[in-house]
Design brief:
The structure is a single chain. By secondary structure, this protein is an alpha/beta fold. It has one domain: 3-Layer(aba) Sandwich (Rossmann fold). Helix content is 42%, strand content 22%. It contains 9 helices and 7 strands; from the N terminus they run H-H-E-H-E-H-E-E-H-E-H-H-H-E-E-H. It has a 7-stranded mixed sheet with strand order 3-2-1-4-5-7-6, sandwiched between helices. Helix 1 runs parallel beside helix 4 and helix 5 packs parallel to helix 8.
Length: 215
């Protein structure tokens, strides 16, 4: 098990019990996301945590494949699905780097509160595009730590060494948007509920690069 998986395993039960910090912002993100969903869609969520968001989106799509690196997070997610009698969400313990789904497998890919916790966040954006069908959307809510939390650069390595912090990647909102565009996305929707908050982006697989994919 990786250090990151051990970190999230250790806090899984506490994480599951913690209320959403800003319920209003969370509900708005759900609303925006669901405006892009359809009943025939196949959806992937990586870094799904304890599964709450995947389960809330489940009634709007055909199937959700939800993954997380923490076995305990996935156990909790499966318990939630059983309790709610939701059968169209498949939870699995897997890192996005291990995902072997064929190209153009999904209509939507969700990466919520996760990109800033990955070493290769740019590579993950590119992989999301590869897995999306033409016109598919990548939905992400991301803390851009390079915008306002630069002090964390100093303490993050120490915190990670002692198991107090997970892996943190530092990039700005501008860098995130440029990485999305460079990977072949058009930004369809951008919203931030306040200063120093996570930026919520819906990015559509760019039609300009569909031809390159097929040539």
């Amino acid at each position: 098990m990786s250090d990151a998986a051990r970190f999230w395993d250790r806090i899984a039960e506490r994480y599951a019990k913690r209320p959403v910090a800003d319920q209003g912002a969370y509900q708005e993100k759900l609303r925006i996301t669901q405006s892009y969903l359809r009943p025939d869609m196949a959806v992937l969520e990586f870094g799904c945590g304890t599964g709450s968001t995947a389960l809330l989106h489940a009634p709007f799509v055909k199937h959700v494949r939800a993954m997380d690196i923490s076995p305990r997070m996935i156990e909790i997610a499966k318990r939630k699905a059983d309790a709610a009698k939701i059968a169209n969400v498949t939870f699995e313990c897997k890192a996005v780097e291990e995902l072997d789904a064929p190209a153009e497998s999904f209509d939507a890919v969700l990466g919520l509160s996760i990109l800033h916790l990955l070493d290769d966040w740019r590579g993950t954006i590119s992989k999301a595009r590869q897995m999306l069908k033409p016109g598919g959307v990548f939905v992400t809510s991301t803390m851009c730590l390079g915008d306002s939390m630069k002090f964390l650069r100093l303490i993050a390595p120490i915190g990670k060494l002692f198991g107090l912090l997970p892996t943190l990647s530092f990039f700005t909102t501008s860098e995130l948007k440029e990485s999305l565009r460079s990977a072949g996305f058009d930004i369809a929707h951008e919203w931030r509920p306040g200063k120093n908050r996570a930026v919520f982006i819906v990015a559509r697989k760019s039609s300009q690069l569909w031809q390159a994919d097929r040539s």
